[in-house]
Amino acid sequence: MLVWFHPSGVFRLPLRYSTCKFLGVPPGRGSCPLTGPLPFDLIYTDYHGLQQMKQHMGLSLRKHKCHIRVIDTFGTEPAYNHEEYATLHGYRTNWGYWNLHGQQYMTMFPHTPDNSFMGFVAEELNETERMFIQRNKVNNMAVVYGKDAGMWKGKENFLAVLHHYMEIHGTVYYETQRPPEVPAFVKNHGLLPQQELQQLLRKAKLFIGFGFPYEGPAPLEAIANGCIFLQPKFNPPHSSLNHEFFRGKPTSRKVSSQHPYAEEYIGRPHVITIDFNNSEEFNAAIREIMKINVEPFLPYEYTCEGMLERVHAYIQNQ
User: Fold this and answer.
1) DSSP output for 210-276
2) pLDDT of amino acid 72
3) N or C, fewer C-beta in 10 Å, the chain?
4) pLDDT: is 254 or 25 the higher one?
5) Cβ(187)–Cβ(169) under 8 Å?
6) pLDDT grade, residue 55 (50/70/90)?
7) Is the dihedral of CA 20, 23, 26, 32 positive or negative?
8) Cβ-based neighbours of 313, under 8 Å, separated by 6 or more
9) What's the short name of a Pfam family annotated to this entry (predicted)?
């Protein structure tokens, strides 16, 4: 039996109630042992859920650490995971030092052998949907990957270049007026429900990233809907040594682009990675994109079948 813990609780129950009910935790703050054996074999949670379990289970958590699988977006390297080593060598962060086996951390993308690749499921199109997309693609339509207005700051120059070739659409949140960071020539739809976003991606030719967020699911969803993903290359690569976002994360991994998995494992023609500061290279990439046609593509590991196969293998063998 498996149980999924989330910061908001198990099966959407408040954590305190669910902890008592499913873990057999007596009243108090983890000062007493559990009242009985755990009624399940594996616990899937994240770092926030792990912290809350520690608060409620106390020392009892040590006995049951082998049951835990941590859904970990960016990965946890051994130096950060081992509490004593992390403390002595300056690797201790707010996220690591749990002393788990490295493969108990399960990442969204397969970027490190230290952890396990859990992944996720992206929507897979049937043949009718694929044919519809190929018939209705708008060759000069681009959608920007950036829901927060702050992501658009400083991007005016290459957006102006892109505007010479394509109609640009955005999905930026705003309350009463257009966010000032979004140029007037951008058609901003505001935050869209998932179904409406899918429809927008099915029409667009290009999905363009600004460099943030890192390694999200949206590029795979766009590629699965027949878009070409254009993303910036980082030189030097981003890491905890040179970029604020990664400071405090339990990894020293160097990220070479906004989405290294898409760059390395998918690549052209579905994914094009360039230096956005090189105007000649940027112009050439846009012209190339307008000339080529791609079919919707979803790597097997992100299909429903691929995900179930992977989870089954972990449950049976790990």
Assistant:
1) -S-S-S-SHHHHHHHTTPEEEEEEEEEEE-TTT-GGGTTSS--PPEEES-HHIIIII-TTTEEEE-T
2) 93
3) N
4) 254
5) yes
6) confident
7) negative
8) none
9) Glyco_transf_18
d(Cα 49, Cα 26) in Å, to the nearest integer? Answer: 18
Give me the pLDDT at residue 59, please. Answer: 79
Other beta carbons within 10 angstroms of residue 308's beta carbon come to 11
Q: One-letter amino acid identity for 54?
A: K
| Burial readout 36-48 (b: 16 or more C-beta within 10 A, e: otherwise) | eebeeebbbbbbe
The whole-number pLDDT of residue 23 equals 65
Residue 104 gets which letter from DSSP?
Answer: G
Specify the amino acid at residue 311.
V
**DSSP label at 5?**
E
What type of residue sits at position 18?
S
Rounded distance between C-alpha atoms, residue 280 and residue 288, angstroms: 12
**10: pLDDT confidence band, cut at 50, 70 and 90?**
very low
Here the tokens at position 80 are 């950060």
Tokens of 44: 């899937």
Cα dihedral 92, 118, 103, 84 in deg (nearest 10)? 10
How many Cβ atoms from other residues are within 10 Å of residue 35's Cβ? 11
> What does the pLDDT look like over 77-120, one tens digit per residue?
999 999 999 999 999 988 888 999 999 999 999 999 999 999 99
Q: Which long-range contacts (CB under 8 A, 24 or more apart) does 95-100 make?
A: 95/47, 95/248, 95/249, 95/250, 96/250, 98/50, 98/65, 98/70, 99/65, 100/65, 100/68, 100/70
**Amino acid occupying residue 155:** K
| Mean of all residue pLDDT scores within the chain | 88
251-274: b or e for each residue (b if 16 or more CB lie within 10 Å)? Answer: bebbbbbbbbbbbeebeeebbbbb
Q: What's the N-to-C CA distance of the chain in angstroms?
A: 15
Tell me what pLDDT residue 14 has: 41
